[in-house]
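pinned: reference chain
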Amino acid sequence: MDNFSNFIHKFHLSPLPFEGNKFTWHNHSVKEHIDWVVSSASWSDLFPNASLHHLFFFGSDHRALKLILNNNGLNSHSRNGKRFHFENVWLENPDFFSVVQTAWDSGLSNQNALTPFHSFLSTQDLCISALKSWNKVSNYSIKSRISDLQKEIACLQDISIVDHESRFRVKCLQSELDALLYKEEVYWNSDGSDADAISLILDCLGPPLEEWDYAFLDEPFLLKEVRKALFNLSGDKAPGLDGLNAYFYQKNWSTLGVDFAKAVLSCLNNEGWIFYIC
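pinned: its structure tokens
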């Protein structure tokens, strides 16, 4: 311990101020502040807006520490509101598919005069609005439940004197939280590796194209090809600007698949414009 103290003094290091509960370690009955972040004067000059946050324990006996080097823009971003984000866990709720079906049918009834591409985007916007309202009422959000559990656990852990009942409650809540965090991480993420896809592409490389190859490429795209391409996508990767990932379209193909394919084919085969979604 003396060596560590000498190291701190030798290099003129000082602890960063923090936000949150000061206790960073506990063994249920004893709490201590034993986790610190220290910096030099030159480092503080380099990152003058740095801030240290004491987060939750996340199942450990130590709190997680979060160091933000630059806070600029964080508050303004939150004021702008959250962008819509489709959550895969909604697929577990039977009501989700009814909401999509109803919204989609309602949107299509008002889009007869539009091109397939414009009709699809307009109907999809109505569907997104319906999902926002549905989620707000049902609160079927894994992220919301995780946040609620973290807050409840933090409140119980901040109590000065924790009795056996409170410790048992924390243990139960932590078990539920761990399960949700694991589920959020691995949900729908078992579709194979990118390395396999790369190998497949490399295996397909061959000699230059022949004339019949060019003729084949000039043929119009088909609905079945659009469907195959969609279902070959990894469902939870690279959601669009609208917040919808491939799982949304794959799992609702029976409702919107034909309209989706028509919209895509109108662009591919008829040289349609897609700048509306850029």
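why pinned: The two ends are 58 Å apart (CA to CA). The longest strand covers residues 51-54.
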